[in-house]
Amino acid sequence: MSGERRLLVEDGKLLVLSWAFPPMPIGTAFVIGTLLSPFDPEGVIVFAGDPGKNGDHPPGLAVRRYDLPRWWPEDTVLRLGRFELPLRLRALGNVAVGLRAAAAAARVLRRRDVKGVLAVYPKQHFLLAACVASAVTRKPLLVFFMDVYVEGLPRGRRVARLIDRYVARRATAAFVLNEAQRKRLLRTWASYGGGNARAVEVPVPYAPRPGESQLPAGLSGRPSILFTGTIYEAQADAIARLIESLDSRELDDLDPQLHLLTQTPREVLARHGIRDGERVHVRRAPLDEVRAAQRAADILFLPLSFDAVVAVVETTSPSKLPEYLAAGRPILIHAPANSYLVAYAQQYGCAEVVTEPDVEALAQALRRLATDAARRRKLSELSDRALERHALENVARLFGGEIAAAVEP
Q: SS3 of 85, please?
């Protein structure tokens, strides 16, 4: 099988440091796994995190795991009388993991057949490991920022800026998921005095899975509304607002029901006010079932929090977006007007958009999508056109070409 695929780096290998990697059920893992899938696994060495927590990595790839053990303690506070000392035990452990990965990466990079190292962010300790290994061996450093870096951190920005300055000066290529993120990266690096890396937009790739179209997936509701993926602060308030809208008088003659297919633990959802109910159904599902559900839903919901960091709002490109486009179902985006999601929807016309944090505006949008068949057909047609830029064959060709250029001596 691997003989049918070309090497990512001609006559050599690429070392990839990505804490998130399949089968980890998060967007970053999905994107990097999909991007590497068309290439010969013999040409890639992967350092990943998540030791033993989510099963085996894809067959054929050389994957080494570097992560905190399961027994590692969480952050805590040491109390000494009236004084409190925060103990950031997870951060200290991650630094140790990063240094261990850096030493191992340097050993790999010293091999003649290994032409360079690609760091995938997030996580910062894997980015640090790649920087250290590249500096020690003088092999090319490439970085893929799947999230905004410095501005997206709640704390520790001083260290992050030092790493980011080094990347700006030392990297030969920097990949991002959209043009808004590319422009923000270049502005940030300009504030450092400029960078040497070529900044390249690589859209979230999409590839159908064999046999997925044969899987049935019935969803209750009239309309049935579906969200798939991890739920955290970046979506939670928008999802909670949608749940509130389901009881609007605007929808009295309908029976709207929301289905959340997510790996997020129920106790985490409860902290955001998201629970099972008469109109809300929460469960886990494998990827094949998720995609079948996307094709069966009446409405696909794509939210972004209205209280998220501005840099995150303006650059977030959800990995589920091309999956939603491929499903051919009407998409409802609920996000701030200055978000990349809204700009994307306006560019391609492929979604109904609500840019106000308003329950009744959401209910009105649900009614439009539930009752206007012509609108639904139009959105489906425009989704097909937008999906073309995410086709794996096209994205992999771009990605492979830029990798090859970045590691040339």
A: strand
